[in-house]
Write a structure and sequence with these properties.
39% helix, six-stranded mixed beta sheet, 15 helices, binds nicotinamide-adenine-dinucleotide, 472 residues
Length: 472
């Protein structure tokens, strides 16, 4: 069991003003995974003030000095890969092998690549008698969810460090433990005091005061659209910059000429990974009517071959949902789907025999789904796939775009020119073609209610700059 009984503020481990500990529950065993100090509004003031005081000196370091700190931090995290993996698996249930590769190694690699991006701050542009320079936006507050917790954290910390900003970081109260390991690494590499501050706490007690704080210049938030709206409102009176990475209901558009076996198994895999708790999950599979029955049988057979169980077992594909609350939410959606007339192709609410404890669900697929049904419109955030038939490509595009979200999408076709044309017509921040792979350098973010702003790569760093014109 992990115990982190202090917060990290101004380069030191300090007692929280609230003087309380938060229990973190392991969703596989329903026992204590750890405890972490809980912050309150007084701690918010201390942390913001530390970040504000550190800003001038940090932002004036050379790019090479900031780059060096970023490289050192990536190195210090690399030494903690095992600890981070075990901790994230214990706090949110991702299977160990997947957790190590996707939840831990990948973000550390993304952080290391940001060393070179520190030089972006030095780029200038001449426009007639104006010289355009970049400056760091200032003190940032980072508010994160629990589903890929280190990835989302690094997606904010790495560009902020590169851009010369200082920060106060709030992980999800469901999964704070990994963030304390990150703070230990920050301390080990001697990042100047106040550049990175860690507060653990709830949205109401720590998140909201951070958004309202007059000395916070920018909030970057990843989480639900519901909280993103509340955060925007809380930040509005102080006119700070707000970047939002929110939910999704992404389509996989399978075209008539696609390799159906490859497309459908990829799609099922994509939804079930991380037990469906992936913001970009392709939760609506759009299949031509003429191939719908064939697609259903491929999907059913493949989903039933996926193993559900203990996330520390090497053979497990789906671990538990991350919390009792998340399990309840997903079960409610499954009941709604059935009540609205969708057919349960596989999975559902039945308990899994060999799993007495833990928040487990079977991989669940609904057929005969109409895009207006609740399960096709709202983000479920669990291992639940909706398979929707379409008549022709125009109809498929209409369904693909008939969603309040626009985070991601994928088009699967035997004709790459056609796939690209379809991709251009989908309103989403990322559209993949066939089995195109995740790219940490490519801009990531949403259209519509999936958010604003971009993370990762050079585009992610741009979010942290102010632009100044010096005119002679
Ligand atoms: P959530 O919105 O409930 O919580 C996210 C964070 O916001 C937590 O740290 C929480 O404490 C804080 N928070 C909640 N209400 C707040 C408020 N009023 N003011 C300030 N802070 C507040 O989301 P979650 O359940 O942790 O995560 C799941 C959601 O995150 C899903 O909707 C998923 O799609 C989304 N997500 C989006 C991306 C992306 O990059 N677009 C990535 C991962 C997850």
């Amino acid at each position: 069991m992990k115990l982190f009984d202090k917060l990290y503020i101004d380069g030191q481990w300090v007692n929280s003003h609230a003087n309380k500990l938060l229990d973190v529950i392991n969703p596989a065993t329903e026992t204590l995974a750890g405890q972490a100090a809980l912050a309150d509004e007084v701690d918010v003031d201390r942390a913001v003030s530390a970040a504000k005081n550190a800003f001038n000196a940090w932002s004036q370091l050379t790019s090479a000095e900031r780059a060096n700190y970023i490289s050192q931090l990536a190195g210090a995290l690399e030494k903690r890969i095992d600890d981070l993996t075990d901790t994230i698996t214990a706090e949110m249930g991702a299977p160990l092998g997947f957790c190590r590769e996707v939840q831990v190694e990948d973000p550390i690699d993304a952080l290391a690549k940001h060393a070179d991006r520190a030089a972006l701050l030095d780029q200038t542009l001449a426009i007639g008698n104006a010289q355009v320079v970049r400056e760091p936006v200032g003190v940032c507050a980072f508010i994160n969810p629990w589903n890929y917790p280190l990835h989302q954290m690094i997606g904010k910390i790495a560009p902020a460090l590169a851009a010369g900003c200082t920060m106060v970081v709030k992980p999800s109260e469901n999964t704070p433990l990994h963030a304390f390991i990150l703070a230990e690494a920050v301390h080990e590499v001697g990042l100047p005091a106040g550049v990175f501050n860690l507060l653990n706490g709830t949205g109401a007690e720590v998140g909201a005061p951070l958004c309202q704080h007059p000395d916070v210049d920018m909030v970057s938030f990843t989480g639900s659209t519901r909280a993103g709206i509340a955060i925007s409102k809380a930040a509005a009176p102080t006119v700070k910059r707000v970047c939002l990475e929110l939910g999704g209901k992404s389509p996989l558009l399978i075209s008539e000429d696609a390799d159906l076996q490859a497309a459908v198994t990829f799609g099922v895999d994509d939804v079930m990974i991380n037990s469906g708790q992936t913001c970009t999950a392709l939760t609506r599979m759009l299949v031509p009517q003429s191939r719908y029955q064939e697609a259903l049988s491929i999907a059913k057979e493949y989903a039933e071959s996926l193993s559900v169980g203990d996330p520390t077992d090497a053979d497990t594909f789906l671990g538990p949902l991350a919390s009792r609350e998340q399990l309840d939410i997903v079960q409610r959606y499954i009941r709604t789907g059935i009540a609205e007339g969708a057919k349960l192709l596989t999975g559902g609410l039945e308990k899994i025999n060999h799993l007495e404890t833990g928040y487990y669900l079977r991989p669940t697929i609904f057929s005969d789904v109409h895009n207006k049904m609740t399960i096709a419109q709202e983000e479920i955030f669990g291992p639940v796939l909706c398979m929707i038939p379409y008549q022709d490509e125009d109809h498929a595009l209409e369904i693909a775009n008939d969603t309040p979200y626009g985070l991601s999408a994928r088009v699967w076709s035997g004709d790459s020119a056609k796939a690209e044309q379809l991709a251009k017509k989908i309103r989403a921040g990322q559209v993949y073609i066939n089995n195109g792979d995740w790219n940490n350098e490519a801009p990531f973010g949403g259209y519509k209610q999936s958010g604003n702003g971009r993370e990762l790569g050079n585009f992610g760093v741009e979010e942290f700059f102010e632009t100044k014109a010096i005119i002679r």
